[in-house]
Design brief:
six-stranded parallel beta sheet, 9 helices, 6 strands, globular
């Protein structure tokens, strides 16, 4: 690895800072389905079809619901994030590793800040980050839409070529790579789409990992002063 130039460390939240097998995001997914069932008076199968269609066409379900059905974002997010976060295990060791990285550390999420802060507190990671950039800050233009990445960099003064971005969704790394970021894909099976399939082109991935703490330990061996 050659990461001594990195001074901005950017992390996705869900299925990245905690393992995908923690079963937190499936709770959110299920509550999205319930919301759509009630909103549109459809059965679970149709709600699932609509939800996934909006996810793929708009980057996440919420902007699609806002555009097509005038859904109020704060109400939607409060509903879908009313979940049991105790299914994820605290991981203070990960917080220590992130805290030791030289430079600024950011959470970049399509979720909202109240939910993200609950998750970070549960994990024991709150102290490790300098800022949180959520879907409200993005004006509901989510990853992987390119303006989301430019907005993050503009607001926080990040130079993309000096930034590293860690994500569990390969498709969300392509716009980051396009503006010069170093990209790290946590390949944990959470990808929801063809971006990581057998025929996918993954030339926008610099590092492919399955254990974030182990990867950061290797990074610190390189970048920490001896």
């Amino acid at each position: 690895m050659q990461l001594a130039h990195i001074d901005a460390w950017i992390f996705d939240l869900d299925n990245t800072l905690y393992p995908a097998h923690s079963s937190l995001f499936p709770q959110i997914d299920a509550r999205m389905g319930l919301y759509i069932q009630r909103l549109l008076n459809v059965d679970p199968q149709e709600a699932h079809r609509i939800q996934k269609g909006l996810f793929h066409s708009h980057g996440m379900t919420l902007p699609g619901l806002m555009a097509l059905y005038n859904v109020y974002p704060h109400e939607f997010l409060a509903h879908v994030h009313d979940v049991d976060i105790e299914v994820i295990r605290p991981h203070p060791e990960l917080g220590d590793l992130i805290g030791r990285l030289p430079g600024k550390k950011y959470v970049f999420t399509n979720a909202d800040a109240p939910y993200a802060e609950r998750v970070l507190e549960r994990l024991g990671l709150t102290h490790a980050f300098d800022a949180l950039h959520d879907i409200h800050a993005l004006s509901y233009v989510p990853k992987p839409q390119p303006p989301a990445y430019r907005h993050l960099c503009d607001v926080h003064g990040i130079t993309p070529t000096r930034a590293l971005f860690v994500e569990d969704m390969a498709r969300n790394l392509a716009p980051a790579k396009a503006i010069g970021m170093t990209t790290v894909w946590i390949d944990n099976g959470s990808e929801q789409g063809p971006a990581s399939g057998p025929d996918a082109a993954l030339d926008h991935i610099d590092y492919r990992i399955n254990d974030l703490a182990a990867f950061l330990g290797q990074v610190l061996e390189e970048v920490e002063p001896t």
